[in-house]
Every structure is written in C-alpha cells, then in structure tokens.
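Dear Dr. H.,

I hope your travels went smoothly. While you were away I took the liberty of generating a structure for the chain from your last submission, since the lab meeting agenda had it listed for discussion. I wanted you to have the full record in hand beforehand rather than looking at slides cold. The sequence, exactly as received, is reproduced here:
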Amino acid sequence: MDLRQVTNENIQFAQSRISYHPRKCLGFKQPAIIFKEQEMAA
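The corresponding predicted structure, in token form, is as follows:
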C-alpha cells in the first residue's frame, strides 16, 4: 500500500477504532474513556 494515498479521514477512522476498542488489560474499558477519566482527575 502506498502511504501517500492514505487520507486524513482514513487515519482518523483507524485511530477511533483503536481508541474505542475495549481492552482486557483495562478491565474491558476503552482507552479513550480511561484517558478522559485521568484527564478529569488531574
């Protein structure tokens, strides 16, 4: 795949899929939610 053909929309979609996928190591919570909780606590 030629990376010059990857659009910002493709990248944002992939980031969203990764950030909102539940993780076993986080107690099946989503990384984006954990990050927001940590941000609010600080």
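Two observations you may find useful: The CA atoms of residues 19 and 31 lie 5 Å apart. Residues 8-19 form the longest helix (12 residues).

With kind regards,
E. W.
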